[in-house]
Amino acid sequence: MTLRVPPHPGASSAAVSRRMSVAARRDTGCELLLRRQLHAAGLRYRVNYPVPGNRRRTIDIAFTRAKVAVFVDGCFWHGCPEHGTQPRANADWWSQKLAANQARDADTTALLEAAGWAVVRVWEHSEPGEAAQLVAERVRGRRQL
To answer: What is the third-level CATH fold of 25-143?
Structure first.
């Protein structure tokens, strides 16, 4: 699947450019909190594991034996219905970019499910303990299959 977004028109200001350039792409605070909770629950996992069938994409937290893929989706980047926002500067470009992100997420989920994986997506604002419990239940359920 090819998701085309036109070239970025450039940052609307130096401050925005600086803020976007330092935004974490992996090992975000919410990912780390969830991983700590999962580890404390006795679960072991792989981090940034390549998606089978598309090695350019990665699974945030992968339980390879149980085939459970966990994604911690950022509210802005993945279009959270509660907290997602649409930038006013370069609005057309951002609209296409965020739509492409959501389409890529759906494609990745479909790809993994077709390969026999269970996919769990949690929002960055999810309470880490609740998210860990959801993931643990899914992993333990899949291990019993």
So the answer is: Endonuclease; Chain A (3.40.960)
